[in-house]
Structures are given as structure tokens and as C-alpha cells.
Amino acid sequence: MKDSRSQKEKIVELTVLSIILIISFIFWNTYFVYPIKLSVVLMHEVSHAITTIASGGKIISMNIGFDLGGSCQSEGGNTILIASSGYLGSLFFGLLFFLSPNKIKIGKWIIIVASTVILIVTILATKNFPFILLTCFFFGLMTLAALYMEIPILSILIRAFGLISCVYVLFDIKEDLLEKHTAISDVSLLSSITGIPGIYYGIAWLILSVLILIIAFRISYKTK
């Protein structure tokens, strides 16, 4: 199925998306962007949980804080894959939302299925009521957005959510590499497991993330 948008529509959409991204950068550390950041932390921890279960492990606890901190304690499973899946998993979810408006009919189901997976994993993995409530709210918003995605402005907002989510992942990786934290990060955990300096993992994830974003933009806004 071909992309039905005209070249003019793509240019207008890309312009609006760029404006939204610039405004988000201006208000990056305010409550304007905070809900999206919190959603990315949610997707980050759920990605850890999914990988833990998929690799034969067990979730001990999973929580996020309203200070944008999160944790997913597990037992068993492939530790390297589990530690790597936080950044890459939240990037993956962000890309799904960003690309979903390209094919509206398929995109609706992508959003609903992705949101449902996040909700189910959260309910099974944690007893933290605020965390579950947040996930239910996230699920409700994304499901409503999917059902009415034919509305152009809503389609752009879904794409903007996905893009800002991906950008926040890049910032998150950068902060874990350059700033000192008392908490154990995914990068430091991988470094302790493999003996390879965390900087190499961080750089690899950053390069991979940027390349994937470039490909996503080319797919969404390619010219004939």
C-alpha cells in the first residue's frame, strides 16, 4: 500500500513537526515535555521486563518515579540483553509511534497492540498502583489516538510524540555517559558484566539510534 500523502502534505507535516520539536527543546525542562519523558521512562522499564521474560527470567520488581527515575529488578534471563533493552526498547516503541501514521489502517493496530503489550506487562510485573494507573492512562490516550488517527492534526501529534520520545532516549544515553550518577545505569551494568568500558556501549547505541532515526525520516518523507 502506497503512502497516499502528496508531496505538499509531507512538506507541511514536516514543517509542523519541526516547529513542535523546536518548541519542545525550548521547554525541555518544563512540565510541557514532562509527560512524554515519563512515558519514555515507562517504555524503558517495560522493555527491560519484556526482555527478562523473553529470555527466561523473572521480574522481582518494576517501578518508575516521578523524578523520571526507573528500575526493573529481575532474576535470571540474559543479563546483557536485559541491560541493553531499556534504551533500545524505548527507542523501538518511539519509532513505532512515529512511523504509524505512514499507513493509517496498519498504524492504528500497531499503536493499539504496542500500548496493550505495555499495559499487560506492567500489570503482570508490578504491584505499584501509581505505576499501573499511569500505564492505564497511557494506554487509554494511545488507544483513543489510534481510533481517530485519520484526523491530520492528531496524526501529526502521534508522530511528534514518537519523535520526542526517540530524542529523549538520545539525551538519556548522553546523560548516563557524561554525568555522574549514584544509581546504577544500564551502561555501567553492561560495563561491569563484560569488562568493556561503558562509553563504547553508549556511543554504539547513540550511533545506532541516530541512524535508525535518519532511516525513519527517509521512509516517512522520501521524495519521488
Note down, in words, how this protein is organized.
By secondary structure, this protein is mainly alpha-helical. The protein is built from eight helices and two strands; from the N terminus they run ααββαααααα. A two-stranded antiparallel ribbon has the order 1-2. The longest helix is centred in the last third of the chain and has 27 residues, at 152-178. The chain is globular, with a radius of gyration of 18 Å.
Strand content: 5-15%
Determine the mean pLDDT: 87
Principal-axes geometry comes out as: globular
Distance between the termini: 15 Å
Class per helix and strand makeup: mainly alpha
Tally of DSSP β-strands: 2
Question: How do the SSEs run, as a string of H and E?
Answer: HHEEHHHHHH
- Runs in which pLDDT lies below 50 for 5 or more consecutive residues are none
Helical amount among residues, as a percent range? over 70%
Give me the Rg, rounded.
18 Å
Work out the helix count: 8
Instruction: Characterize the biggest β-sheet.
Output: 2 strands, antiparallel
Spatial order of the strands forming the largest sheet: 1-2
Structural features:
globular; mainly alpha; 2 strands; two-stranded antiparallel ribbon; 224 residues
In short:
With 224 residues, the chain is mainly alpha-helical. It is built from 8 helices and 2 strands.
SSE topology sketch:
Blueprint: H1 7-26, H2 34-54, E1 58-64, E2 70-75, H3 79-99, H4 104-125, H5 129-147, H6 152-178, H7 186-194, H8 198-221
